[in-house]
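for ur thesis appendix - Delta(1)-pyrroline-2-carboxylate reductase family protein. copy paste whatever u need, i formatted it the way the template wanted (i think)
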Amino acid sequence: MLLHAALSPHATAALLPWKLLAEEIFAVLHDASVQVPARIVLPLAGGGSLFCMPAADSQLAMTKLITSTPANAGTPRPTIQGDVVVFDVATGSRRLTLDGPTITARRTAAVSLLAAQRLAAQPAGPLLVIGAGAQGKAHVEAFVAGLGVREVHVASRSTHSAQALVEHARSLGCDARLVSDIRLAARHCPLIVTCTPANAVVLHEAPRADAFVCAVGAFTPQMVELAPSLCLDFAQRGRIVVDTEDAAHEAGDLLQAGLDVPRLPTLAQALNAGPAQASGAVLFKSCGWGGWDLAAARLACAQAMQVAT
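the 3d part is after this line
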């Protein structure tokens, strides 16, 4: 299927059902033909960044080209903008052009979904989401569709955004509520997702022995969402899993806690360890990887071909 115009956010999302996307991410982790060079991050004037993230397997090649502009937060302009362009390896022709922010939101939440499916002691929740932006919304949708979560608690600096996410969760059939006391909510919820701009600590403790914390906001050494004491606590009494080896120079939460990040297991290693490991407190640190975008591109192309036929 050859589409020259970039698909809309809605059309892009329609090609990426949550459960199938999590399965495709798992498949990418076990595909020896996958190549993912280091992403290029170009700092821009004003505090923004330009990201170029290429990846390929034996059949498809893709690159995600997006800008991240934190200064757009609170304005009508999105903080993440750009496209994902997918090519056929055999012919070099363009297959699809997908909406970059939609790919980023959905593949990130689907990686969290896969980790929670395999590693969380209580995958059905209740769920506490800290941060009510695009990632907060995506994680609620992914966890509802993929884990059967039916109780959602939302915390955010923006009451308006938090209330909007609460209403969205209710539209998905959830008992959802706005919370102001994160510590109290963390005692109630075995599932916790932090997806903030990562410019300050938002989670100081996860007291439950069956806690599964998924931290996705921080992807540079300077960014942070989790208190260092919380990271150290997980290292001592539970498990810390990182999405890829790139976390060694990207996982700000863990680096600022002084942890030896290169020694931590990756998601692929944790999944290969088997379901017997899915017990106790787990911190999953997600920083992002071009392979996740490749998984989304593979699924989108497969789904688009089904629609075309």
